[in-house]
Design a protein that fits this description.
The chain is α+β, with helices and mostly antiparallel strands and about 475 residues long. About 25% of the residues lie in helices and about 40% in strands. A hairpin with a 3-residue loop joins strand 26 and strand 27. Helix 2 crosses helix 3 and helix 3 crosses helix 6.
């Protein structure tokens, strides 16, 4: 059985525009199918829709369950807007006005955030907030080159002149850092040179815990991704993968079987960590590997014929959304849980499922009874009474028809048991016959001993008479 049959498999390959953003939620994945069109597919790989919005548009996220496209007109006055699409059909639901020259947008808890491009005689970039109810804009900060607008638990993050700034929903500065920051849900992680990782508190940026990847070079920057209760850490120069406890930062396990050339974050699914393997597969590409979240063991590998690109990879339950190296396609890869893998008879783990172990044990017992009927009978007699009593009670409660049917079925299914019973009866008969043959010999030995005793007594009496005739007469 191939390792792909263990569960790790490609659900679908979807045509996409070159290196365009994509987003995923629990129901579907959304992406740009070309420069003007946007598409959606279910996590099972079924295409849902493919629609055209406007020239110069781009997908910016999923807001309140709707995929949202940012439009930017080519003609003055270059109007910008957020277009909300119906996730089922792709039809336009509503529009929200955006500031002129908007390049990025995000949303959190009733507030829109926009990054605008440079304007003449003004600062290069601006961060603008807008209340979703009123639509009123509020300029928060202006400065040099600003990128990487992201919503997080406390508000919004953006990188301004290579420094990450955090703002609350009212535009007040919370904290800043020159580290590389990544956000996974409500988890904020900061990585530093030398293989260091710190979890930050969203409210004030204070460190909750820190971890240093032992053996990392001074210039090394680890790649990270957080799941529900764990953080996967990839040290690309060492080609090693580690899993940390999300709450405490303690190391759970570490393995060396990953690609030493991957500078993209691993992905944490509910039951595994997915990254590129140290083994090549599909020509020059590294195989896609799934490591057990429990102990770091290699669960499965998937041939990488098209070149999976882990950069900007996404996770929705058991499905990973990966790009293709040439940027022309997306791949949906399903990573089933360990329970599903065992029930399917995973050949990559080298372990039997519980049902398989029970079947093998039953087969061994039946074979033993057939080859060694005498040893099988005592084994059956030595069963513990507590476990036998419930079975006896249950058998007594069965209807006569059921009992008869069961007896008949047992007779058909257990020729070995019948053979064992017949052999045991033969052995008992042989033992009785042998005992019967031994009895006359014992009686003969008893009679001979009696005769010897009488002869000895007579001889002794005769000698006594000769020695003391008076005493014998008195007696």
């Amino acid at each position: 059985m191939s390792k792909q049959s263990s569960g790790l498999h490609t659900v679908a390959r979807l045509t996409a525009a070159l290196h365009t953003p994509r987003f995923v939620d629990a129901g579907a994945v959304y992406w740009s199918s070309d420069d003007f069109r946007f598409a959606a597919a279910s996590l099972a790989g079924e295409r849902l829709w493919d629609v055209e919005v406007e020239d110069g548009s781009r997908l910016v996220g999923i807001i309140e369950g709707h995929p949202v496209v940012l439009t930017s007109g080519f003609d003055p006055p270059f109007p910008c807007a957020l277009v909300f699409l119906d996730p089922a059909s792709g039809r336009e639901v509503r529009r929200v006005a955006a500031p002129e020259h908007t390049t990025e947008a995000a949303y959190h808890d009733g507030v829109f955030a926009f990054l605008t491009a440079a304007e003449r005689f003004e600062a290069a970039s601006r961060l603008v907030l807008a209340d979703a109810a009123t639509g009123k804009f509020k300029k928060v900060v202006a400065g040099g080159s600003a990128t990487g607008l992201t919503a997080f638990a406390g508000g919004f993050l953006c990188t301004l002149e290579f420094v990450v700034h955090a703002y609350d929903l009212k535009g007040r500065s919370l904290w800043k850092t020159d580290s590389v920051v990544s956000v996974s849900g409500e988890t904020v992680l900061a990585t530093h040179l030398g293989g260091e990782l710190t979890r930050l508190r969203p409210a004030d940026g204070a460190p909750l815990w820190s971890f240093t990847f032992k053996g990392a070079e001074a210039r090394s920057l680890v790649q990270v991704h957080a799941g529900a209760d764990a953080v996967a850490v990839l040290e690309p120069r060492l080609g090693e993968l580690a899993l940390l406890d999300l709450a405490s930062g303690e190391l759970r396990w570490r393995t060396k079987r990953v690609a030493a050339t991957s500078f993209a974050p691993p992905l944490v699914t509910p039951d595994a960590v997915v990254t590129l393997s140290a083994r090549k597969s599909g020509g020059t590409w590294q195989a896609l590997a799934a490591f057990s979240l429990a102990d770091g063991s290699l669960r499965a590998e998937l041939a990488n014929h098209h070149g999976f690109n882990m950069t900007d990879g996404l996770v929705a339950g058991e499905v990973c959304v990966l790009g293709q190296e040439d940027g022309t396609a997306l791949h949906l890869v399903r990573v089933p849980g360990a329970a599903s893998t065992r029930s399917a008879g995973d050949a990559t783990t080298g372990k039997e499922s519980r049902g398989e172990r029970a079947a093998v044990q039953t087969k061994k017992v039946a074979t033993t009874a057939k080859k060694h009927p005498r040893s099988a009978a005592p084994a059956a007699a030595n069963k513990s009474p507590p476990s036998a009593a419930p079975a006896k009670k249950a058998a007594a409660n069965k209807s006569p028809a059921s009992a008869g049917s069961a007896k008949k079925s047992a007779t058909k299914r257990s020729p070995a048991a019948a053979s064992t019973k017949k052999t045991a009866a033969t052995a008992v008969s042989a033992q009785k016959k042998t005992a019967a043959k031994k009895t006359p010999a014992a009686a003969s030995r008893k009679k001979t001993a009696a005769k010897r005793t009488q002869a000895s007594a007579a001889s002794a009496k005769k000698r006594a008479t000769k020695t003391n005739p008076r005493r014998v007469g008195q007696s």
